[in-house]
Design brief:
Rossmann fold; about 260 residues; 10 helices; 7-stranded parallel β-sheet; alpha/beta; 7 strands; binds nicotinamide-adenine-dinucleotide
């Protein structure tokens, strides 16, 4: 029960990586506010998750008023916030930068980057009271880049910079700020992405091969790392961007290495 008596504000907790985090945080004793901007995914997640100690809030992380309301609702219901996990994110479109429309560019930054600004603006005073912590779901592409995903990669580069800068700004308050950086994870987001690729038939094989450990995982591997980072087990870790990537950054395109063996 690593998270007994902890209240976690989790954005994007209705699907994919966030849903696995919600499951694990709850099993570890946490009370949860789960934020999503689609009612359908909230209804489905409600069926998949336990019905006690979880509050679902339909809100969009990119809208300041929505986050102000969601934070206030969480405090009114649970009395405090110990952890803000900024997990909600989008990756569309799969395009080079010159093909990315201004609306697509703005939406990516509004959700993936401004979303963090919004939850921090309205949530930081609560974390000061609990000496809590913040976790971001970043991506390996924020460090190493990605083909036909320049704008998305740029948002995750910004998340990495925010992780370090926020860690410095809030350390005096005893607030830790960390990130996890997955490579590929089978979620609804990745399934959509794989269908958009020029050669979608070989994509599953490709996704297995980019991970040095030889397979593309499900969200549970990321949730295990998140549980550690938001818990007191990680009490002396801040400003850390933890790859949860099966070593993808060590031997990107494992298939090339194999042909040399
Ligand atoms: N799946 C991968 O391969 C992968 C790899 C690296 C990083 N990531 C990152 O992990 C995070 C989760 O990705 P996923 O693959 O689980 O995605 P997903 O699409 O499966 O789930 C995204 C979740 O975020 C919510 N969401 C999306 N936009 C929102 C908004 N504006 N306001 C509130 N909620 C919103 C959705 O309702 C959903 O619950 C993202 O930040 C993503 O960039 C994913």
């Amino acid at each position: 029960m690593l998270l007994k008596n902890k209240v976690i504000f989790l954005t994007g907790g209705t699907e994919g990586i966030g849903l696995e985090c919600a499951r694990l945080y709850h099993a570890a004793g946490a009370q949860l506010s789960i934020i999503s901007n689609t009612e359908k995914s909230i209804v489905e997640a409600r069926e998949r998750l336990p019905d006690n100690d979880i509050r679902f809030i339909n809100a969009d992380v990119s809208i300041a008023a929505d986050m102000q309301r969601a934070i206030a609702e969480t405090v009114a219901h649970f009395g405090k916030i110990d952890v803000i996990h900024n997990n909600a994110g989008i990756s569309n479109p799969s395009k080079a930068i010159h093909e990315t429309t201004e609306d697509e560019w703005n939406r990516l930054f509004d959700v993936n980057v401004k979303g963090i600004y919004n939850t921090t603006r309205f949530g930081i005073d609560e974390l000061k009271k609990t000496r809590g912590n913040i976790l971001h779901t970043s991506s390996l592409v924020g460090d190493i880049g990605q083909e036909i995903h320049a704008a998305y990669s740029a948002t995750k580069g910004a998340v990495n910079a925010l992780t370090k800068s926020m860690a410095l700004d809030y350390a005096n308050f005893g607030i830790r700020v960390n990130a996890v950086a997955p490579a590929g994870v089978w979620t609804p987001m990745l399934r959509t992405w794989s269908k958009q690729q020029p050669d979608s038939t070989t994509i599953e094989n490709y996704l297995d091969q980019i991970h040095a450990l030889g397979y593309c995982p499900e969200g549970d591997v990321v949730a295990d790392a998140c549980l550690f980072l938001v818990s007191d087990q990680a009490r002396f870790i801040t400003g850390c961007i933890l790859p949860v990537s099966g070593g993808a950054e060590l031997g990107y395109r494992r298939v090339i290495n194999q042909s040399n063996q």
